[in-house]
């Protein structure tokens, strides 16, 4: 027998021995420590956890044997008592809510992967009220009969946007889908070629149009589209013009596009509608938002439907808002998809509270966390960075390892893609080969911290970190720096 065959035979024998040494489910369940777990968790859940641990160990042994490598299971004690800590850990994970608190030290204020906009306290309180008891969600307390959930935000939406009518659904993609399905199904919708955007996670404007039952007609070129291009593309099947704000990128240089009022006149003269998808939905009058198209301008230009997100630059919960002319919004309200896409009561409660802050623009900027973070003076951000550095030095981190650096923050969520927001970060020196591992340690902490790794250093950007979070950030960062 060759040496190779003999070695494989020995490995196979060892693998089979390890598999035979695995405890049975009943053996693990008879362990005294497992009896304690059965007192804390449902029996079926404990049994499933035991089976999951055994299945994982069995698969690990087989996979490592086939690859000719050692594994954790190969070296582990596989007796019933030794498996109990694994079972307990799996049970703890199973019953612990998955969503965790994160301190956002990335410098991206409306971070899509971290939940986008933070809610102001008034909105948090409104959510608690809606979640913890019965509410008049679809009930008129004055009349004593059924009402619409839209009543709670309709008037304030019309007030802050200047629109005739308004509707809230579960996100902006849903608002665009509903708008096109209700007004253009079976017909053609004209869209400038440079506006056929992908709005995130693989969802594209052409896909939404297709699902709405309308047919996409591309107009013009990528960088230059004229009113005459829309006129030339018009047929007796044209039902709408869709203007899509390219909020997540910019085409600069040799560019042209028709003004909204020109498109509105063309559409209305020919018995069609103008739908304007603004995406980010900036309502606040911040200088930073100068490059964002103003929602009120879209209404004034004659758009029939204007759609935008609730959880981007508006600073509210996930929602899709559609405002505009009464006939068009009413068609959306009466469409069968409206119920499938409707906003839930918790988001509705938060949205109601956020919109009412906009009745006082100064209060909105002061109390809505997204606006507050974006509008904060650089000296204020620098002050937070200084406090973080002082806390870390006071806890024993060498001053030489910590540097305040000027950085560039971003609005995030596809908004203001070329706008740089000045910021300040604490750059913490760590062994270069360990930077990624230290960042992972931060993400696994409590609270979790997400920061940037740049030039082998951990970069804690303070633009999106609130004052109340600085000490918690210092405590969490300390674990990765000691």
* Computed structural class: alpha/beta
CATH fold type of the largest domain? Aspartate Aminotransferase, domain 2
* Strand line-up across the major sheet: 4-12-11-10-9-5-8
Count of domain modules: 3
Net shape: globular
| CATH architecture assignment name of the largest domain | 3-Layer(aba) Sandwich
Structure, briefly:
The protein is of the alpha/beta class and 482 residues long. The protein has helices at 3-21, 25-29, 32-40, 43-67, 72-75, 80-95, 121-132, 151-161, 172-184, 205-212, 227-233, 260-269, 295-300, 326-334, 337-340, 345-357, 361-367, 369-375, 378-394, 435-443, 470-481, and strands at residues 102-104, 139-140, 145-146, 165-169, 188-192, 198-200, 203-204, 215-219, 238-244, 273-279, 305-309, 320-324, 402-409, 421-429, 448-450, 452-454, 457-461. It has three domains: 3-95; 119-367, Type I PLP-dependent aspartate aminotransferase-like (Major domain) (Aspartate Aminotransferase, domain 2, 3-Layer(aba) Sandwich), CATH 3.40.640; 374-481, Aspartate Aminotransferase, domain 1, CATH 3.90.1150.180.
Question: Would you give an account of this structure?
Answer:
The chain is of the alpha/beta class and 482 residues long. It has three domains: 3-95; 119-367, Type I PLP-dependent aspartate aminotransferase-like (Major domain) (Aspartate Aminotransferase, domain 2), CATH 3.40.640.10; 374-481, Alpha-Beta Complex (Aspartate Aminotransferase, domain 1). Helix content is 46%, strand content 16%. The chain is built from 21 helices and 17 strands. It has helices spanning 3-21, 25-29, 32-40, 43-67, 72-75, 80-95, 121-132, 151-161, 172-184, 205-212, 227-233, 260-269, 295-300, 326-334, 337-340, 345-357, 361-367, 369-375, 378-394, 435-443, 470-481, and strands at 102-104, 139-140, 145-146, 165-169, 188-192, 198-200, 203-204, 215-219, 238-244, 273-279, 305-309, 320-324, 402-409, 421-429, 448-450, 452-454, 457-461. The chain has a seven-stranded mixed sheet, with helices on both faces. α4 (43-67) crosses α6 (80-95). The longest helix is centred in the N-terminal third of the chain and has 25 residues, at 43-67.
